[in-house]
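Working notes for the structural subgroup meeting. M.R. asked for a predicted model of this chain before we commit to crystallization trials. I am recording the input and output together here so anyone reviewing the notebook later can reproduce the run.

Input as submitted:
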Amino acid sequence: MCDEESFLELLEIFMELNEKQDEIIVRLSRLLSKQATELAHLRNLMNVEASEDMQKDENILTEVMEEYESMKLEP
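Returned structure, recorded in token form:
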């Protein structure tokens, strides 16, 4: 039974870490989104286009974030 207790304790720690990781990702995503909006406004004001690499990275990031959200476990 000690093995089962240890497993359950480790599982609980893992789940808590996962919840914290989700919270960090959500908060960083919000921050990044706000910064991206501000950067877009600055680009518009200065009439500057985003680089091609940046646009590719933004598209990849959006895709990965959508995949992550679809994979999250719901409590």
